[in-house]
Recover the amino acids of this structure.
């Protein structure tokens, strides 16, 4: 069984720094203090995700970062509906810019289709406007 990832739009964030800032807020953390993203649907392929999978974040049409998925927790909100809490490693790893068309919710992402991580020395590479970053990626220059 190979590693499988998730990909999700980072709604309300224009750049990686916005995600970093959000995850410093206690509202973004689970009871154990780890970043957690709560989603309505539970992944049917959870076993594959938990074998080293990551959540890849899309900012304004461009994948720019990922976080390793640690576990999936059951979350019951005030409305009584059970949801999936995707518990993430706190480290946000920047990736090569990869354009992605809009979609709703999350999608599975095969390991072979995931953008590579940026070397740590290039961690500031997403400082370009997302539109320019996407155009450079389309041209194969990022």
């Amino acid at each position: 069984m190979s590693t499988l990832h998730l990909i999700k739009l980072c709604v309300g964030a224009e750049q990686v720094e916005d995600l970093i800032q959000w995850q410093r807020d206690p509202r973004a953390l689970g009871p154990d203090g780890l970043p957690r993203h709560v989603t309505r649907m539970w992944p049917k392929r959870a076993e594959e995700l938990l074998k080293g999978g990551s959540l890849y974040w899309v900012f304004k049409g461009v994948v720019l970062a990922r976080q390793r998925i640690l576990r999936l927790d059951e979350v019951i909100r005030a409305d009584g509906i059970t949801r999936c809490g995707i518990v993430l490693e706190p480290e946000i790893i920047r990736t090569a810019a990869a354009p992605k068309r809009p979609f709703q919710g999350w999608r599975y992402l095969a390991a072979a289709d995931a953008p590579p991580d940026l070397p740590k020395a290039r961690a500031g590479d997403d400082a370009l406007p997302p539109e320019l970053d996407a155009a450079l990626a389309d041209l194969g220059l990022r």
The longest strand covers residues 62-76.
